[in-house]
Amino acid sequence: MRNKWVAWSMPVVIAGLLGWANLSLAQEKKAEPPKKEEPKKVEPKKEEPKKEMPAEKNVLDAAKDAKCAEFCKLVESAGLVEELKGKGPFTVFCPTDEAFNKLGKAKCDELMKPEKKAELKKILLNHVVKGKHLAADVKKMKDAKTESGTVKIEEKDGNWMFGAAKITKTDVNANNGVIHLIDAVVMPAEKEGGKG
Question: What is the tens place of the pLDDT at every residue in 43-101?
Fold first, then answer.
């Protein structure tokens, strides 16, 4: 009877021992894999500097994109395209199309007449400053020395002003300068005798 029990229990004991052996082998195998830490791919992040694409545009092209088509049209009429597409750098306080709407269509049409070219040129250049002056630089200025005069810069009621115009958007970058949008056309200060 005892022999029968031993004979019957032996396979159970052997199976149990084999099970333990397999379990410990499996645990050893599980402990090994952390060695495979080869593929660390950090390369795709190098493709980020493509954000500099807008700098392909000069201040005039950037102005068109910024809804300043009227300004660009008048620049063409005044013969300033080559100058503003040039090397620069320029800071353009660019009146939006709405700003020219405030001036009135009749006034804009009048300024586009050949005999008004000199006056138009002077008005447009009153919005152009040599050098690239970002918003942070503009806020440190008391006035801007434009290509046809001096325009006061100040903070009024929480808004930054370029003369009587409110600066509505800043730092529109271009490859030859920067644009700040303004909500009005700023006329050059008249010198003695009414013109100058």
Answer: 555 444 444 444 578 999 999 888 899 999 999 999 999 999 998 899 999 999 999 99
pTM, entire model:
0.68
How many whole angstroms separate alpha carbon 73 and alpha carbon 104?
15
Distance CA 135, CA 113 (A): 34
Q: How far is it, in rounded angstroms, from Cα 129 to Cα 149?
A: 10
Range of the domain at 24: 2-28
Cα–Cα distance between 95 and 80 in angstroms, integer? 16
Do 23 and 94 fall within a single domain?
no
Give strand pairing partners of 162.
153, 165
* Cα–Cα dist 167/163, whole Å: 10
